[in-house]
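Ligand-bound model needed. zinc ion.
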Amino acid sequence: MAQPFRLPSGGRVDRATPIRFTFDGRTIEGFAGDTVASALLANGVHLVGRSFKYHRPRGILTHGSDEPSALLQVDRGPGKIDPNNRATVVEARNGLATTSLNRWPSLGFDVGAVNDLLSPVFVAGFYYKTFMWPRSFWDKVYEPVIRAAAGLGVAPQVPDADAYANRHAHCDVLVVGGGPAGLAAALAAAKTGKRVILADEQPEFGGSLLHETGASIDGQSAEAWRAAAIEELDGYESVTLLPRTTAFGYYNHNHVALTERVTDHRESPAKGAPRERLWQVRAAEVVLATGAHERPLVFADNDRPGVMLAESVRVFINRYGVAPGRRIVFVTSGASAYAAAADAKAAGLEVVMVDLRPERDCASEAADLRLMGVEVLTGQTVIGTKGRKRVAGLVVAPCANGTVGARRVIACDCVGMSGGWTPAVHLFSQSRGKLAYDEGRDAFLPGVSAQAERSAGAAAGVYDLASCLATGFAAGAEAAGATETRAFAASPTRIGFTPVRDLPTDADPAKVRAFVDFQNDVTAKDLKLAMREGFESIEHVKRYTTTGMATDQGKTSNMNALGIVSKALNRPLPAIGTTTFRPPYTPVTFGALVGPARDALFDPIRATPIHEWAAEHGAAFENVALWRRAWYFAKPGEDMHAAVVRECRAVREGVGLFDASTLGKIEVVGPDAAEFMNRMYVNPWTKLGVGRCRYGLMLKEDGYILDDGVVARMAEDRFHVTTTTGGAPRVMNHMEDYLQTEWPDLDVFLTSTTEQWAVIAVQGPKARDVIAPLVSGIDLSNEAFPHMSVREGAICGAPCRLFRVSFTGDLGYEINVPADYGRAVWEAVFAAGEPYGITPYGTETMHVLRAEKGYIIVGQETDGTVTPDDVGLAGMIAKAKKDFVGKRSLARPDVVASGRKQLVGLATETASLVLDEGAQIVADPNQPIPMKMLGHVTSSYFSANCGRSIALALVADGRALMGRTLHVTTPTGFAPATVCDPVFFDAEGGRIHA
Amino acid sequence: MLLIDCPFCGTRPETEFRCGGEAHIARPADPSALDDGAWAEHLFVRSNPRGLHAERWVHAHGCGRWFNAVRDTFTDRFVETYKAGEQPSHPIDDARA
Ligand SMILES: [Zn+2]
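Prediction:
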């Protein structure tokens, strides 16, 4: 018979809509409105997983997001697999495939369960004590074993097929939690007209009202009140209701992050709908109505499947119409479990109540329950449980003043336990509010707020329904700036409990396994061992035993752990302190955090106006900062090496075409522009004539090279500055910083023009011939337009700034045209160059050609610790200038000391050997290790024009070592190389002036 | 995420801003007049108080303006922001003092 444990009536499930899903391959039937947990229980399935460390059989402990044990892998289709889902919050629907975790080969027969027999080995600190020696075991034995054993579930193997959305929102009042306190708070806030967001992690608002079936509020049933409240809230345009939405992080300035589960519960979601939506809400005021978690009791074998929290038993009966067992024993130290027992009895189940408190402390509720015909034992302790994969009995004994009496076994198929309640103060604590221990309620409650928030209801330790509603209403009104309060008439709530820690027992302590943290398999014994070994700070105990460190963040375990530590150390609980709560409150999918920022949207790509042309002409691209630059243009049959050799020859022998648009550009304008340039660069600028260019070198204040680039003077008060491709924002920020904060008196304006200009470099002996027919208004003759000058005119009718500059060492021009003209001008130049064999080339050829000339690239020859003199550029420095940024540091003792690394060339003895960039250099390869390293290779290429490999290197006192043979590391040993001048090609430099 | 009050734009989220280190460290008018020790002090030595700290911030993804802020390094709270060239109204702590 399907669903043998479904009660004949009751619950909020839709019995007219049956659903089916699978659990470990077995078909499970349930109803719409079920969670996976409630459907499993309806079918009598209690064994749903194996525990993390000992592989003990585990069942369903709770009914909500605090669940530590019932973790499942959920498969919703191809590319839609999630590990580590709590069965108690996954909404059951058709098409889900769920599997249990931590078992092999099957849930019923699990080889790893041998760990349970070996449990004396797996004590607190086991990892720290065991996986230490011998060293040779780390890689081959320990790591594979730990990796195989670690984790909960299997990581998905294919890309996530779902889409995720991200939304920012602002509101006046954010109410977290839609139970009675949250609903009342939202009602009070909404009435003021303020913008309210109400979020609750469950599919329906109502919290405890969803299972408080017998409760009444203001003369109507709790359900009628709940429905009316939601209808009223729904009527406000200023209210946003977010069910299935978990506030998981509370950050600075009331920035609260929430995840909304949009489609997981839908069998056929709307096309394009995201799976989840990350909400980042900035709220003026926050109301935390996050409720409380019930505490398990700590007794031997309290993790047996079928042992669950008392309130959870009640929820399964009242909300889902499911009997977690036919014969249920409740064991409690508080009053709330009596409501659960009464509801179980009313549902026709056999019930026994075991109260740990003496009769005098529970006489009233015990009497009420006895009137219903339930046996109530008081003054008891729990010795253990019977059964293995399902609880079959609870072993109890009378206990007074620590003396344990005769045992009695109460046969049962379900245990509902309650050790009291722990307010869910996670978000309050995340907001940096100070928690205060309340002895009467044995709980840490929200104390002094650090942000604009307040807690209400059970989250503030207020448990009775009428007070929850009243505190919620007052909190909502206050958050909305109103002062209204009101009282609610509600049915009484059974509250109050006596805190108990691990229960007294007469069993052999060595054999008692009383679990505190169910997810990380931490027992009371582990905590006591940690304290015996000297770990007394709760933060240390936590890390040593891993209690509270699992994905459930110790929602059910923290207070029990604190209590046991407090009792063992004989210190009051507030002196033990509590551990810090950190986001996320419950696990968050990576998808929700990533949102749409994946694939093409992961990182923006900057492309030049000529990018498409390059792509059409077979360019391979490389990433340079965010830019995608053409790397080389291979012809059919060519590899990269062949393409680069061909491109390099073409530039030296004919003409090449290069897209330099990515160069950073800054327009420096104003009456004080030249003075500003004098202060920012090492070079002199005052006397640079209009129409002339200069290579500019920029330092940081510490004297090290920050950036370089050609600077053109367009007018007395206007400079066209270029920077490295990756350095443009850095240089702009550096300039702005000094201009705004050190020299606000200078009348200068800085404008980033990087993307305003397309830059087409035409380089090679034929460059002039190629562009001449296209240029108008500029005399291109060597006399009228020499190297390092700039002219304004037109090319192909487009306005242009034409630079005669070269980063190749050959005759060259850089055509700057407004970006929109870039591709058309490029194509025109390419067409005009075809008679000359014009060859497009990429960044690799650019790198080789400049290295042949010994031109540095900032970031390649420099690394933030390199001065102008180190790279042989001391001659750029204007000696007459009294000051510029970095000048004083060039006289620092460590900068003028000998032994600094200097830029040199390296010629390998084997001409074909291309050294590795970054390879270390030593004088004597036979010296003992550790060797004295002299420096490293900064650039290294094969140069077709030189007929051999070439390399640049930074070598200690390198310029004094010309002609010396040094030795460079290679993957196969040391290679000898001779120190030489860094200029490998056209040392006289005549070609550039052709 | 913090909210930071740009003196030019108003309150904006932290991600629009970048911190530029300790404020009120003026660049010497004539660096060449400083001996090596004094120059190294200017370059490298900063206060590191537990408490109120005056800092340079730039509204990088906004107006692009540099301004100063007093932030409590213990609580990570911004106490005030003010324009470059102005003085804070809160006394700042200096671990070097
Ligand atoms: Zn601003």
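The beta strands of chain B are 3-6, 10-13, 18-22, 52-58, 66-72, 77-83.
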